[in-house]
Design a protein that fits this description.
By secondary structure, the protein is of the alpha+beta class. The protein has two helices and four strands; from the N terminus they run E-H-E-E-H-E. The chain has a four-stranded antiparallel beta sheet.
Length: 69
């Protein structure tokens, strides 16, 4: 099991948090997701055999938000 924290730009409400959460939960291999608005952050536990950090970050961007690197 691997863990990452990703800073996110563009979230402004609870609906944004829900959208990012859904996008992350749809990624194969993601086990647990916690997304907060303040600070704008996603904490993700995932199986590295099924996915990687780049794919997880891409899912956030595909949902319409920016990953702060």
């Amino acid at each position: 099991m691997e863990h990452i924290e990703i800073r996110i730009d563009g979230m402004s409400c609870g609906g944004c948090v829900a959208s990012v959460t859904r996008a992350l939960q749809a990624v194969e291999g993601v086990k647990t997701v916690s997304v907060t608005l303040d600070p704008p952050l996603a904490r993700v536990d995932f199986d590295g055999a099924d996915t990687d950090a780049a794919e997880i970050e891409r899912s956030i961007e595909d949902a319409g938000y920016d990953v702060i690197r």
